[in-house]
Amino acid sequence: MEYKNDNKFYFEIEKRIPGHLGRAGIIHTPHGDIKTPAFMCVGTHGEVRFVSMEELKSINAQAMLSNGYHLRNISPEIAANGGLSAWSKWNGPTLTDSGGFQVMSLGSGCGKVVSMKREDNMKNTEEEKRLAHVTEDGVHFHDPFTGQEDFIGPEESMQIQCRIGADIHMAYDELTSLADTYEYNVESLARTERWAKRSLDEHKKHCDDLGYHQSLYGVIQGGRWEDLRRSTCKKYAQMDFDGYGLGGAFLKETLGDILTWCNEELPENKPRHLLGLSHPDDILIGTENGADTFDCVAPTREASGTMSRFKTT
Q1: Residue 241 DSSP one-character state
Q2: pLDDT tens-digit profile of 217-245?
Q3: 68 and 96 in contact (C-beta within 8 Å)?
Q4: Rounded (10°) CA dihedral 23, 28, 31, 37
Q5: 3 state SS of 11
Q6: Is the Cα dihedral 105, 108, 113, 119 positive or negative?
Q7: Which residues contact 96 (CB under 8 A, 6 or more apart)?
Q8: How does pLDDT run across 275-291, given as a tens digit for each residue?
Q9: Which residue numbers are catalytic?
Q10: What is the pTM of this model?
Q11: Which residues are 32's β-sheet partners?
Q12: Which helix (H) or strand (E) holds 185?
């Protein structure tokens, strides 16, 4: 039987790491509880590569993260089948991202490998070669899979995610690259903050459309600069988000510092999700510095490469 929690989304803290920001708790969602700290397996298209839903349950996986950008065109079908948890046959807690990563990966980072290492002479992709272009309204992009021109703004992202119907959604944001300047991060962050307000307003119109309450996290940006991180976190703390996504193109050596700057300013009673960084040492650093949940494509991506080698030998 599918689990349904009649209560709205909420987070309770059970234990704390003395002298640190880290804690352990429970995130209560309409489709089950997530005991934190927790890794969310990535099922980009609503399924995890090489692992069946039964196998995910057997290894005590707690939640699945899917990609709002990649599921956008079939979101009406997902809604018609009761939302992501039921449609995917996962029948447990789910989360979708907003497409913010694709803003960077199709735009300034197009054709580049995203890493956590600073490289000499880092440069963004030339404007004329980008597949995505950011405006105040949102992002105009060329879909490399369909060949079609498309557009997603905060309103479109919220409508898509509410049709997909995960328990937790991410507000629309612009992810900057490690090559972007402080000045550009100031401009981008101000736009992301405006998008956060638009995301909240639109999300409230649709968050109960599928018969259960869908929650929204605000996504924190600000690059590698302490003043930007702390400033935006103070603003987000005053907004009506259910939790927070800790975003950014992080450098490995400054991950702990950036998380500390953010989590010292964010409300303690709301959960925080570290977006896209979950190698074992990332999880340890993240947990110690106040992150509660994590996701990363690395496990399934590396497994995919291993399986491919097996098939060719």
Answers
A1: -
A2: 999 999 999 999 999 999 999 999 999 99
A3: yes
A4: 0
A5: strand
A6: negative
A7: 65, 66, 67, 68, 71, 84, 161, 164, 166, 168, 169, 170
A8: 988 688 999 999 999 99
A9: 97, 295
A10: 0.93
A11: 29
A12: helix 182-206
